[in-house]
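Please fill in the sequence for the structure shown.

STRUCTURE ENCODING:
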């Protein structure tokens, strides 16, 4: 079975929908989603989208750019960061005009609040830059963009999974999808394909990510022989609910929440004396882990407290309602009276598919484009986040570069050839092998083992010994994967089959991650090597490109330069 569309967008989160809205009405657009479109993971974003609007106090895009560059530990590409921060005010206002119901200040303007790492006057003090809709910012942006897509007759393929990308003579010409309900495969011709498949946090034991975040786009891209960029940089959000990983947004600290250790000390004053609890996430996560390692976790355990009890009830009820409800449901506490138990949780992937600043996928260190293929959002690496993403820059990245990717695709459609004949693929053969696999290994056992070893040996703290062991562990898990057996041969809503397909992706992405992390013998942003605790700009101020060799299956590392325009690397102080 086959179909055709001018543009095939894989992923219905904010990045994919923003591109679809930009293109809507001018081409035949289709959006593929593993879930119902409005259940995409972008809807989980709570705290805000940043822009130097200056609605609450003076702000400038140059300050926002500096904060983003500094937050990235100077690994972010400054040409792309300048585009994002310059465009931010106009893009946020455009969202408002589409109907996004932002919270308002007393003057009726879009309300703004502080967020980690965002400052005024090049680092002198925190600034109110995060535009928000209570604590449901991602939810309302996602819903608004979906409405705009419906308005322009964008075609949706809900509950379809990306199985493969199809290429002819180096050009991406379509994709293979699987419908969950029937198990049937659908081959789609497309003049262009945009990957917006999100992150792969399910590689770790504790994560804020949804179950669908298994890195499908980047993993397939890697299998096709193309590189993935900066895979070693994985953000662990400081404040996931203990034992669950469910996010307690940085908005809580933006509204005045305080992190405390077992003695009730506001310990961030020791690690970031200027902006304290609003330091960038990599610094706060490591600070929490150091408190725990030094025996100052609550009751000697592996968590600390996030204290809201000094905030007035109105602030919690109006600005943090959903977050407070999470604390009540999952931690069993009333945040107005009790502190919330929190610990770092895998949250965001800074690395991914390398692209230029318009979403065009590039294939090597010289930025050679892959014709017909684009990527945006967390699955892509532009790179505006470098070694560490600032809070609220994620939604901004999705909106700005989703729009820009739409523009680039529009130009590609005007200039490119028509539909190309689809090549043969091996998806049917691979699926049949999986469905009929009858060996003894089980997918959940292998997945749990992967999540455990990645959490133990490649999370907030890393070293050569642990990651060398991890490489061997992943090889053993891949061997075990070759001996799996499924309990059901049914093709209808066979989620065991889907889990097996996704586990193959996670194993490949874990392999690319650990090889990149071993190569980078320094500490930078979210990548902290206990055997190389300093940043080394002389040798490692470069992006990594992890590539899987077709014949040997080994992962090799190449590099490409970082774009440095306005701000030279300096020591990060907060």
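FILLED IN BY: designer on duty
SEQUENCE:
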């Amino acid at each position: 079975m086959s179909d055709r569309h001018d543009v095939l967008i894989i992923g219905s989160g904010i990045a994919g929908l923003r591109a679809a809205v930009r293109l809507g009405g001018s081409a035949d657009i289709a959006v593929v989603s593993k879930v119902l479109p409005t259940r995409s993971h972008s809807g989980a974003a709570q705290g805000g989208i940043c822009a130097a609007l200056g609605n609450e106090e003076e702000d400038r895009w140059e300050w926002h750019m500096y904060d983003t560059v500094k937050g990235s530990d100077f690994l972010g590409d400054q040409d792309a960061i300048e585009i994002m921060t310059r465009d931010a005010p106009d893009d946020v206002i455009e969202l408002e005009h589409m109907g996004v119901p932002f919270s308002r200040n007393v003057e009726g303007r879009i309300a703004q609040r502080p967020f980690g790492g965002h400052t005024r006057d090049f680092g002198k003090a925190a600034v109110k830059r995060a535009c928000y809709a209570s604590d449901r910012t991602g939810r309302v942006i996602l819903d608004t963009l979906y409405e705009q897509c419906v308005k322009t007759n964008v075609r949706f393929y809900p509950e379809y999974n990306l199985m493969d990308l199809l290429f002819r003579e180096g050009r991406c010409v379509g994709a293979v999808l699987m419908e969950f309900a029937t198990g049937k495969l659908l081959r789609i011709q497309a003049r262009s394909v945009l990957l917006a498949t999100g992150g792969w946090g399910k590689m770790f034991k504790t994560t804020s990510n949804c179950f669908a975040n298994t890195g499908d786009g980047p993993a397939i891209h890697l299998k096709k022989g193309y590189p993935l960029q900066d895979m070693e940089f994985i953000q662990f959000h400081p404040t996931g609910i203990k034992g669950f990983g469910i996010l307690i947004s940085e908005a809580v600290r933006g509204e005045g929440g305080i992190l405390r250790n077992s003695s009730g000390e506001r310990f961030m004053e020791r690690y970031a004396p200027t902006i304290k609890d609003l330091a960038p996430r990599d610094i706060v996560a490591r600070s929490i882990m150091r408190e725990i390692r030094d025996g100052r976790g609550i009751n000697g355990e592996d968590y600390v407290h996030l204290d809201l009890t000094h905030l007035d009830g109105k602030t919690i009820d109006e600005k943090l309602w959903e977050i407070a409800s999470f604390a009540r449901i999952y931690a069993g506490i009333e945040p107005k009276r009790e502190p919330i138990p929190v610990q770092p949780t895998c949250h965001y992937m800074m690395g991914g598919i390398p692209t230029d600043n318009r979403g065009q996928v590039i294939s090597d260190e010289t930025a050679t484009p892959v014709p017909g293929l684009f990527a945006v959002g967390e699955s892509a690496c532009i790179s505006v986040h470098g070694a560490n993403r600032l809070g609220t820059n994620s939604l901004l990245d999705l909106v700005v570069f989703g729009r820009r990717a739409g523009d680039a695709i529009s130009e590609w459609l005007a200039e490119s050839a028509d539909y190309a004949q689809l090549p043969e693929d091996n998806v049917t053969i691979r699926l049949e092998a999986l469905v009929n696999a009858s060996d003894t290994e089980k997918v959940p056992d292998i997945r749990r083992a992967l999540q455990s070893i990645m959490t133990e040996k490649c999370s907030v703290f890393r070293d050569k010994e642990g990651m060398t062991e991890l490489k061997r562990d992943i090889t053993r898990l891949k061997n075990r994967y070759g001996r799996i057996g499924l309990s059901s041969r049914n093709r209808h809503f066979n989620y065991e089959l889907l889990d097996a397909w996704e586990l193959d992706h996670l194993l490949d992405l874990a392999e690319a991650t650990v090889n990149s992390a071993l190569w980078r013998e320094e500490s930078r942003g979210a990548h902290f090597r206990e055997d190389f605790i300093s940043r080394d700009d002389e040798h490692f101020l470069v992006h990594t490109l992890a590539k899987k060799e077709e014949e040997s299956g080994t992962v090799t590392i190449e590099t490409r330069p970082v774009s440095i325009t306005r701000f030279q690397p300096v020591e990060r102080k907060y």
